[in-house]
Design a protein that fits this description.
Helices cover 47% and strands 15% of the residues. With 258 residues, the chain is α/β, with parallel strands linked by helices. It is globular, with a radius of gyration of 18 Å.
Length: 258
């Protein structure tokens, strides 16, 4: 299927690894001019090299997207993107009694306010062009909170609520705003979470990983490639009537009828 987005411009945040990289690769395969940003320059350039080798058009910006300077640099490199993929690493797991107000502010900045700032910076040109796609990579915890990830639960749910209202305001302008909610994908984030759990339980991390995968209805973890494909479809010309939605990708882990 031709997604109809060749020649469009996309900004993919945290695009050097994991799910962000999966999205960048999928968009580049569709002929999108992709700009990826991340803090680690080495990983960023390695991802860019792989995408170029596959024939994709890619630019890189090393920086912290959660800072004003990082956002300014990313937007200078990718002016007026047609597609915005908001993505940022989640806050650490833990016990809510241990979290300070500074911990909460850091989580809110990274996983709610940064995305809103990027949307604010890019939405008006999209409205003027009568076309745009915004995809927020959040978490399955938006639908089913994860007890040890309280900081993430709170911040990402706040972004989801904001975008639910925004999506209905800009749909008439040819813009869709959706969330992609990953469950257990084989990424650094999942491995970190399993390491935390294994340490807490005093068990080998390999044992915890095998057990987690076995408990998923699909009996496996997801891949960045299939996540990226779903993201690319949401950005396509075929998905313009899908907006204000939160697509859960978790192999059926969350037992729900909606």
């Amino acid at each position: 299927m031709d997604l109809g987005i060749a020649g469009r411009r996309a900004l993919v945040c945290a695009g050097s690894k994991g799910l962000g990289r999966g999205c960048a690769e999928a968009l580049a395969r569709e002929g999108v001019h992709v700009t990826i940003t991340a803090r680690g320059k080495e990983a960023l350039e390695a991802t860019a090299a792989a995408i170029r080798a596959a024939g994709g058009k890619i630019a890189t910006v090393a920086g912290d997207i959660t800072t004003p300077e990082g956002r300014a640099a990313a937007l200078a490199a990718c002016r007026d993107p047609d597609i915005l993929i908001n993505n940022a690493g989640g806050p650490p797991p833990g016990e809510f009694r241990d979290w300070t107000i500074e911990d909460w502010m850091k989580a809110l900045n990274a996983n709610m306010l940064t995305a809103i700032e990027l949307i604010k910076a890019t939405i008006d040109p999209m409205i003027a062009r009568k076309w745009g796609r915004i995809v927020n990579i959040t978490s399955g915890s938006v639908k089913a909170p994860i007890p040890i990830l309280g900081l993430s639960n709170g911040a990402r749910t706040g972004l989801t609520g904001f975008c639910a209202g925004l999506a209905r305001q800009v749909a008439k302008d040819g813009i869709s705003v959706n969330g992609l909610l990953p469950g257990p994908f084989d990424t650094d984030r999942l491995r970190s979470s399993m390491a935390f759990e294994a340490k807490k339980l005093g068990r080998p991390v390999e044992e915890v990983a095998k057990e987690r995968a076995a408990h998923n209805p699909s009996r496996r973890f997801g891949t960045a490639e299939e996540f990226g494909a779903a993201c690319a479809f949401l950005c396509s010309v075929h998905a313009g009537y899908i907006t204000g939605q939160n697509l859960l990708m978790d192999g059926g882990a969350i037992n729900s009828s909606i």
